[in-house]
Structures are given as structure tokens and as C-alpha cells.
Amino acid sequence: MQKPKAKRMQSWQEITHYAGFDWAKNHHVVVVLDGQGQIVADFEFEHSLEGWQSFTDKTSIWPNLALAIETSQGAVVDQLLQGQGAVYPVNPVAAKSYRERKAPSGTKTDHLDAWALAAALRADGQGWKVLQPLDPLTQQLRLLCRDEVRLIEQRTALVNQLQQALLEYYSTALSAFDDWTQDFAWDFIVEFPTPEALTRAGKRRWEKFLHTHKLWRPETAAKRLELFAKAGLFKASEPIVRAKSQLALSLCKVLRTLGQQLDFYRQQIEALFEEHPDHDLFGSLPGAKKVLAPRLLAAIGSDPTRHGSLQALQCLAGTAPVSYQSGQLNKVHVRWCCDKFLRHTLHLWADSFRRVTAWGQTYYQNKRDQGMSHACALRCLGQRLLKILFRMISDKKPYDADFHARNQQKHGSWVLKLVNQPSASAGE
């Protein structure tokens, strides 16, 4: 497959006009300023083929145009990146402050929002980072990983509804299975939708179900069969059973379909990850395995210049704390304004990393001993892991545990000293 021609990024000194882009679902508002801050264009267009063609025609007279927009992803950003202008994403919190700077009274209109963004870009844009498009393979992988997480969240919501329905009429089923994200639990409800249906089926069908779904275990089979035998002794009234069993059946059928689609997504993600040039680099991360390695690649990318610096990446991931200082007051708190997908992925990776590496577990336990919560200790570990990963991406070298240990020893790492202490190991 031929690699598409890369878009040439304009330098800030080349920019002559500054546009604020206020986007919406069906229409968008654009305000363009010249170098002196005068409005040279103020127009609105529909989100359609004709609308975008009109936008291209109107802005083509300014070849050195920069655009500020209150998002960094989505259909609008995709269209802008296909054009020639430099795109500067603005955080919604910052965009609100820029609007209030222009209108302290609290006035808000689409045109005011666009003007405020354009004015902020002209005044402060030299310190902003231009949005660089991802390569097609990484972009597709990112979209698939994000959509997979959304589907998993939908599955979680459906499972919660299913468990609540079963709680009202079918406590035996809830007691028999612990993991309701597995298809065997849904198949059980489809085959035995009510306590009465389970009782009528009899022991031979119960045993057949357990064997068919490979659930027969000496330590659990007897307990489950005992629960099935007592299913009819504790039941809800007939109207509740009829209504809630119908809901449970519907949810299980939806979950079956959703489970099949999640399996398909996983296959697509793994196939794309195998094709990616940085597969070996991200695949070498301890604890990442098949699920988290593609997500880390999708969330961070393989180009370190995209983030600018390690500190910028740590802020984006939400591991770097926020400082607040005023007079004698000086405090820090967790960073909520960040890439939620990256923060969630890094949280899962840090938790997996500490389980497979001695120094990761030692670092985590030390933070816990200092009084930190589980999430806070993982954020601190994630901050360290990002430093390692950023260096790996910059050097284009996979993770080497021996090389990392030598570096820790060279710099006198306190974590390595705790790892090598027998008492510390015994205390864990």
C-alpha cells in the first residue's frame, strides 16, 4: 500500500491569518482575523459537502491560515486536517476563559466563541502545539481501540441491568455464576429463563449444560447442582417472574450479539497491531500483553515529537499532578483535565506491570506504605512508566529489563535498593 504524502506543517512565522472555528453537529461558524486583529471574514456554513466546499473556497485566499478549534478529534477535525491550514486544538476550559476575556458580562454566541478563539490564537498561538495527523494505520488502530472500550462500557451497563433483573426474581442464577460478562452465563438464562424452567429441566440437563460449557469442576459442580435443586423454593410472584424473565432474556440476547462484535473488534485490533512497524516495541512492555499494548500504541503513538516533551505526555496522561500556589498556600491535586482514554489505559498497564515485575511491585508498595490510595500509587507508577516508554519511543528500542536494571543501579535507584533488601521482599 502506497504511503500517503505527508502534509507540510507551517511554521508560526509563516502564518498571516488566524481563524476561530466554532463547530456544531449541523453547522459551523468561522471568524478570520488578519495580523492586526481585524476581522476579515465572518461566516457560517452547513456540515455537508456543499458547506465544506464553500469553506474551502472562502479560505483559499489565505494560504498561510491557522485555525483554532475547541476539540482535537472528530469529523470536523478530520476535514480540517485534510486541508492546508494549521490546526490548533484548544481545551474547552481555556476556550471558556478566552470567551470571558472578550465578554466579561457572560454573553455567549457562536460568533463570539469563534472570534475569541481567533483572537487567542493570534495573541498566544506561538506557544501552542499544532495538531499533527496520525499515520493511517495508527489512526485506525486508535479509533478501533476507543470504540472497543465504549462497547465494553455498554456491555458493563447491560450486565448491571441483567443482574438487577435477576435479583428481583432469580437469585439462584446470580449465586451460581460470578462473572456475568461470559457467554455461558447468558446461555444459562436463555436455556433456563425462570426458576420453574430450571426445576423442570432436571439434573441430567443441568449436568449436560455444565459439561457443554466446560464448567464442570469438582470444587464447584456439587455446589451449583445443589443451588439448582433448590431454585423453586425461593421465588418471586408470578407477575414479577413473567416481566423480569422477559427483560433478562432480551438482555442476554443483546449481550450475545455484543459479545460477538467485541470478539470481532479484538481480532481486527490484533491484526492491525501485528502490521504496525512498532509492534515489537510496544509488545515488549511487561504486563501489556495483547490487550493493553495496542491501546498504548493507539493512545500515545510512535512519534515522540507529537507530544513535544515527556512532561507534556505526562500531563496528557493525567499522571502529573496540578500545583496550586497562592501566598502561603501551596498544594497539589490530581489532574482531571487529560486524555481519559490514555489515563485509563495507563492505569490498567501500571496495575499489570506491578504484578509481573519486582521493582514495579516494590515501588507501588512503597507508595501504599506512605499512605497513598491504590489509584494514587498507580498514578505515581504510571508517571515512572511513561518516562521509560517515552525513551523507548525516542530511541526506537524495545524494553530491555537488564538494561533498565543497569540504569537503576548506575543512578543509585532507591527502588532497586528496596528490591534487593530481603526484609522488604519478605514484607510484601
Query: What percentage of the residues does DSSP assign to strands (E)?
Result: 5-15%
Helix content: 55-70%
DSSP, total strands:
7
Instruction: State the low-pLDDT regions, or none.
Output: 424-428
- SSE run: EEEHEHEHHHHHHHHHHHHEEHHHHHH
Largest sheet: 5 strands, mixed
Cα gyration radius (Å): 28 Å
Domain count: the total is 3
Mean pLDDT: 91
Shape field: globular
Spatial sequence of strands, sheet with the most strands? 3-2-1-4-5
Count the helices. How many? 20
Distance, first to last CA? 52 Å
Structural class: alpha/beta
Task: Please describe the structure with a list of short key phrases separated by commas or semicolons.
428 residues, alpha/beta, Helix Hairpins, five-stranded mixed sheet, two-stranded antiparallel sheet, 61% helix
How is this structure best described in words?
The chain has helices spanning 49-59, 75-82, 92-102, 110-124, 136-169, 171-176, 183-191, 195-201, 203-212, 218-229, 238-275, 279-283, 289-300, 310-317, 340-356, 358-369, 374-395, 401-410, 414-419, 422-427, and strands at residues 17-22, 27-33, 39-46, 65-69, 86-89, 322-326, 329-333. It contains 20 helices and seven strands. The radius of gyration is 28 Å and the shape is globular. It has 428 residues and is α/β, with parallel strands linked by helices. The chain starts with 16 loop residues before the first strand and ends with a helix. A hairpin with a 2-residue loop joins strand 6 and strand 7 (329-333). It has a five-stranded mixed β-sheet. The relative contact order is 0.07. The chain has three domains: 13-133, Nucleotidyltransferase, domain 5 (2-Layer Sandwich); 140-272, Helix Hairpins (Orthogonal Bundle); 281-302 and 309-427, no CATH class. 61% of the residues lie in helices and 9% in strands. The model is unreliable at 424-428 (pLDDT under 50).
